[in-house]
Amino acid sequence: MTRSLTILGATGSVGSQALDLVARNPGRWRVEALTAGSDVVRLAEAARACGARFAAVADAGKGQALKEALAGSGIESGAGPEAVVEAAARDAEIVITAIVGAAGLPPTMAAVRRGAQIGIANKETLVCAGPVVTAAAKAHGATLLPVDSEHNAIFQVFPHDDPAQVERVILTASGGPFRSRSREAMRGVSVADACKHPTWSMGAKISIDSATLMNKGLELIEAGQLFPVSVDQLGVIIHPQSVIHSMVEYNDGSVLAQLGSPDMRIPIAYAMGWPERIATPAQRLDFAAVAQLSFEKPDLERFPCLALAWAAMRAGGSAPCILNAANEIAVAAFIEGQAGFLDIDAIVAETLAMVPSGRVETLEEVVAVDATARDVARGLVRRRAA
Ligand code: NAD
Ligand code: MG
């Protein structure tokens, strides 16, 4: 049976791997809509290749260029953030949310509100607005299927019918490119150094988050939103080989884990095919070649971002939203050369100290807190650059 599919963030790392799966499985999905931030050439190429009905670019100034790139294809198009929301709102059974950052929140909500099956890669949306998104999913009958490899692993081994059987949920982390570096040795690192992930190939923002370990912090918060477990049941362990993608420890002492090669097409295919499994070309694990699996405790002193995320998760309310907004600004500043690598955790810590956190119950409240935190973080970036 052919199922309809929309991919938000189709030109990125996750989005293009989702499209790779579409191309490898003719007839399984019919693509309704694709979206991108600003790259209209890649977006139009992808839309033509998969026969999408609608393509939207978030950059409002790129509407004409997208129309031209799609000329003669019969594919409708739109531009601006509202067009991306329109893409998500169009009738597709499955939506993969592969936009990076809190920019993914409005389109994700549009898909949630029509009860779609959502493969959620866009973790920032769950970090800044988890309770709002999950409550809406429940109210509208949307299914949230995690694409993030750790959460997908947990989803696969979690006792959904009886969560009381769970004692702990343990997220694995590769440790990133600076796993064994001192703080001093991290000071002058370049964007290229920070993006050299040891095991996964990903977009720039998440690669830098992996280097600061903020990615694992965001994932802790994400796990708390996706699974019925308390903060104290969540843990992180560094596992440099990235073979075990995460684990669930049961009350009898059994630990169930999902293993695989570090290829995002495995969790993406899981979310796109669910409840069926789909064949992927991912490399099969060769245990003899892997030879050893090792583990170490995360170092919260060298990686303060992970400690900040733990604290924000414990504080709850708007604290995760403030953390995420400040991190997005700080990472963008690092990429643009306006801040150093070690400024990232400092800017996040200072923003959290400056913006009072409190309860957030509605989407509008989340959007307002996000905007305030971004302003404060931008001010901190400017002060550093001056
Ligand atoms: P990426 O930078 O490669 O791609 C991001 C996509 O979002 C692109 O299509 C881009 O055009 C679009 N986009 C950017 N800004 C936008 C905006 N303001 N409005 C609308 N669209 C915009 O990122 P990625 O690595 O594919 O990651 C996407 C999401 O998936 C992130 O939240 C990331 O944390 C998560 N994730 C990624 C991986 C991975 O392997 N790359 C793994 C786990 C989770
Ligand atoms: Mg992950």
Automatic annotation (TrEMBL):
UniProt record similarity statement: Belongs to the DXR family.
Choose any GO biological process term that the UniProt entry carries and state it. Answer: isopentenyl diphosphate biosynthetic process, methylerythritol 4-phosphate pathway involved in terpenoid biosynthetic process
Any coiled-coil ranges, and where? none
The residues that hold Mn(2+) are: D148, E150, E219
DXP reductoisomerase C-terminal domain: from which residue to which, for each copy? 259-375
Q: Where does 1-deoxy-D-xylulose 5-phosphate bind?
A: K123, S149, E150, S174, H197, S210, N215, K216, E219
Per its record, how is this protein called by name? 1-deoxy-D-xylulose 5-phosphate reductoisomerase
One Pfam family matching this protein = DXPR_C
